[in-house]
Design a protein that fits this description.
Length: about 280
């Protein structure tokens, strides 16, 4: 399955707790899930989510029927209610709206291929409105056009990672950050071989070992048990794999000194060793 499919499967299991947020997500699913006058979603998990959202929001669930298209199935929904009002002034609602929008019209390149996220929209007005919503969340999205559709897209790895975090795709975010970090480490190693810089090579080896430690912790399923301070330094190391200890400390809020970062990384290594033994 594609990375996009995996992200959507994860998002299909994220249920907003607040009624206003459910309405915002439902509004996006309805507005951008229409195809040829029908309300269509691509997966059974998303269809089940729509059923739950409509039942909780409107008091009655949408009906679902499956339609085979080639080797895959799509799910057509119907409901007497076809509007869901939402308030774009609420940050929580904007984030739920963007989650529903990605479920209905999103695409994300595999992290092994690059950093590219698209939202495919039917008209320029929709594209500009979505770009404005993203701007309110401090994203520098661009609008383009392809084969009669309009695209709102992000091509910066940091912004793609922020978007995944915003819509609560935490598992997909970890995979994205892991791949991005390893690619950056690999590119840095290649530069070091050409430059023959021993001190920097030592730093890269240490960063690579730290990334391996983080992967071992995630693979063992103990990430959620890590103290918050260790989670913070792990995410900064993944985001800046070639940074020095001083630079890692400066990237934290509040900043942490070099000795403090070194102490956290040693604790992170101890967690990783325990995870490997288990």
């Amino acid at each position: 399955m594609s990375f996009t499919f995996d992200v959507k499967e994860e998002l299909a299991h994220v249920m907003p707790a607040r009624d206003c947020c459910r309405r915002a997500e439902l509004a996006a699913l309805w507005r951008f899930g229409r195809r040829h006058e029908a309300w269509v979603v691509d997966s059974a998990a998303t269809a089940r989510k729509v059923v739950q959202l409509t039942k909780r929001t409107w008091g009655r669930a949408a009906s679902v029927r499956s339609v085979r298209v080639g080797s895959r199935y799509r799910f057509v929904l119907s409901s007497a209610e076809q509007q869901a009002e939402w308030n774009p002034e609420n940050p929580c609602c904007r984030r739920s709206f963007l989650r529903g929008l990605f479920l209905a019209a999103g695409w994300l390149a595999s992290p092994e291929r690059g950093h590219h996220l698209e939202l495919v929209l039917p008209c320029r007005g929709d594209a500009e409105a979505v770009r404005d919503i993203l701007a309110r969340e401090e994203f520098g999205a661009r609008v383009g056009r392809r084969q009669g559709s309009y695209l709102v897209y992000l091509k910066d790895g940091e912004q793609v990672a922020r978007f995944l975090n915003l819509i609560k795709a935490s598992g997909s975010l970890m995979r994205f950050e892991n791949v991005r970090a390893f690619k950056e480490v690999k590119n840095l190693v290649n530069r070091l071989v050409n430059a023959d810089t021993a001190n920097v090579e030592k730093s890269v080896d240490a960063a690579a070992r730290q990334v391996e430690d983080i992967r071992a912790i995630v693979a063992a399923g103990v990430w959620e048990r890590l103290p918050r301070a260790l989670q913070e330094v792990a995410l900064v190391r993944l985001r800046y794999p070639d940074a020095s200890l001083r630079e890692l400390g400066e990237a934290l809020v509040p900043p942490v000194g070099k000795s403090g970062i070194n102490h956290r990384l040693r604790r992170l290594h101890a967690w990783a060793e325990q995870a490997r033994r288990n």
